[in-house]
Automatic annotation (TrEMBL):
HTH gntR-type domain boundaries: 25-92
PANTHER family according to UniProt: GLUCONATE OPERON TRANSCRIPTIONAL REPRESSOR, TRANSCRIPTIONAL REGULATOR, GNTR FAMILY
PROSITE patterns referenced in this protein's UniProt entry, alphabetically: HTH_GNTR
Record protein name field: DNA-binding transcriptional regulator, GntR family
GO molecular function: DNA binding; DNA-binding transcription factor activity
Key word Transcription present: yes
Length: 241
């Protein structure tokens, strides 16, 4: 089921290290968590190169779970495959790129929320609420791994809204932006997760109430407020420079 697959894309166990002697799938999840924590804490720097053999030596595991974890991260926009050279961490987005992404999201996502209020099935509304519940569990957690996992669920939540809108063009366009991955890599701020939760709940409430105008308004307000929160990071950097 497409909804369940989207939820599964953001679901990861919260571990601080990579234990040995686990099954292949579980070990790949643990490697993923470790790499996600390093990525969100900037221990793996933006723009740097990562290779499977080096990571296997550092983590003390075989190359198979490393490869599985990196393939998963590539699908989520967390790493970029470089032919014959391993993988590369995407650079941080520029202020100009950030503003362009915000403009596109303001054009597409309120429209998706409006259509979702008109077209979402009761099952899809249930899945949206379940996603919010998973995000709420992570909101109280600390550390870069939990913060990164919240960011991926944030992306999955917006994808579910687009999915329930039944407009594949909007959904594909938003997926190509990988906007949440880029935004959550900018800064670790738990206030971001708290405020986003409240705004997401308003979007889902409007969709569940079958109120297209309220859903579009709630989504637009969420994107604008999110833009204000992350824009401060660029402004702070400019002042410090």
């Amino acid at each position: 089921m497409d909804d369940e697959a989207t939820i599964a894309r953001g679901r990861r166990a919260m571990t601080d290290a990579v234990p040995h002697g686990r099954s292949g799938g579980r070990l790949a999840d643990e490697v993923y968590d470790t790499l996600l924590g390093q990525l969100m804490s900037l221990r793996i720097e933006p723009g740097s190169r990562v290779t499977i053999d080096v990571l296997a030596r550092e983590l003390g595991v075989s190359q198979t779970p490393i490869r599985d974890a990196l393939n998963r991260m590539e699908a989520e926009g967390l790493v970029v495959r470089v032919p014959h050279a391993g993988y590369r961490i995407p650079p941080q987005i520029t202020r100009h790129r950030f503003e362009d992404m915000l403009e596109v999201r303001l054009l597409l996502e309120p429209a998706a929320a409006r259509r979702s209020a008109e077209r979402a099935s009761p099952e899809q509304v249930t899945v949206l609420r379940r996603m919010l519940a998973e995000m709420a569990e992570l909101e109280g957690s600390s550390g870069p791994t939990a913060y990164g996992a919240f960011g991926l669920r944030d992306a999955a939540f917006h994808d579910l809204v687009a999915l329930s809108a039944e407009n594949e063009v909007i959904r594909e366009a938003l997926a190509r932006l990988h906007s949440h991955v880029h935004l959550f890599r900018l800064h670790h701020d738990t206030q971001v997760t708290h405020l986003a939760m409240d705004e997401h709940e308003q979007v889902v409430a409007a969709i569940a109430a079958r109120d297209p105008d309220a859903a579009a308004y709630a989504m637009r307000r969420h994107i604008l407020r999110s833009g204000e929160r992350f824009r401060r990071l660029f402004e702070a950097t400019t002042v410090e420079a």
